[in-house]
Each structure stands twice: as C-alpha cells, then as structure tokens.
Amino acid sequence: MKIRQFAVGDTEQVVSLWEECGLTRPWNDPHADVKRKLDQQPELFLVGEVDGRIVASGMGGYDGHRGHVNYLAVAPEHRGQGLGRELLAHLESLLVAMGCPKVNIQVRAGNAAAVAFYEHCGYEVFQVADLGKRLIPDA
Predict the structure, then answer these.
(1) Number of folded domains in the chain?
(2) Burial (0-12, 13-18, 19+ Cβ within 10 Å), 11
(3) 131 located within any domain
(4) Structural domain includes residue 78
(5) Residues with Cβ < 8 Å from 15, sequence gap 6 or more?
(6) If 0-12 CB within 10 Å is exposed, 13-18 middle and 19+ buried, where does residue 26 land?
(7) What angle do CA 40, 44, 46 make, to 5 degrees?
(8) Pick from 20, 18, 31: which is nearest to 70 by CA?
(9) What is the pLDDT of residue 75?
(10) For the domain that residue 84 is a member of, what is the CATH number?
C-alpha cells in the first residue's frame, strides 16, 4: 500500500470508502468533513492506495494536548492484510513528530470489531463519558 496525503481529487473515492465501511451518518455531511479537514492540519489526512485505487483513509489531529484519529477505514476486501495497522502507525508517527504525547480514538458503542482492532494496535478502552454538542449543523 502506498500512503500519501489526501488530495481534493480523492474526495469521491474517500467518501465512497467511508460509506462502504459504515462510517457516515445522516447528520454528518462527509463532503463538509473533508472540506473542514483541509482547513485544519491537512497533512494529517492520509489515504492508502493499492494499484492506484484508494482502499484506506485516516484523519489525524493534534490540539496541543492530545491527538485524535477519525475516519480510519479500510475497504472490506482489503481487511486482514495489515493495511489499517500500517496507516494508523503512519498517522501516529506524524503525531509524534508534532510532539503529541497521547492519542484518543472514539469508537461507536457496539462496534466490537473496531475495539478489537485498536486493542490489537496497543490501544486500551478507558471508561469515560464521551460528550458532544453540535455547534454548526450540516445541511
């Protein structure tokens, strides 16, 4: 897999990947999420290609206190080959280079496969309340 920074021309392939992987929700416009990410640390928005096709994606962020990973996705037919671990490790290395001491990942309740994947990558489940508030509704 070739890992590189996301380019605007990748938008439709990446949104399709997110939809295929069940990462999109009706209240979040994935196209708006792409545009927002391009305004904030676009160097932490990565895609993975196999034979010229995008088969993986991941968004990282660092706020000065901790890092975050969102939209980590691997096309179902490419899972089990280590591509998710490879992309996650690449994001982690970029975060470390920025001085990021810790990274958090949110997983939707009930997604045992994702939890198992992240645990396999060295993450641990913390018992915390995850709160959120929509400030700008997507159309």
Answers:
(1) 1
(2) middle
(3) no
(4) yes
(5) 24, 30, 31, 34
(6) exposed
(7) 125
(8) 18
(9) 98
(10) 3.40.630.30
Percentage of the chain exceeding pLDDT 90? 94
pLDDT in tens, 70-107: 999 999 999 999 999 999 999 999 999 999 999 999 99
Question: Is residue 125 a part of any domain in this protein?
Answer: no
Q: How much is the average pLDDT of 49-57? A: 97
**Residue 82 carries which side chain, given as an amino acid letter?**
G
Cβ atoms of 54 and 34 within 8 Å: the answer is no
Is the residue at 39 inside a domain? yes
Listed range (28-32, 102-106, 127-131) with the worst mean pLDDT: 127-131
DSSP 9: G
CA dist., res. 126 & res. 124, Å (int): 6
**Distance between CA atoms of residues 3 and 34, nearest Å:** 18
Domain of residue 14 covers 2-120
Question: pTM for this one?
Answer: 0.93
pLDDT for res 92: 98
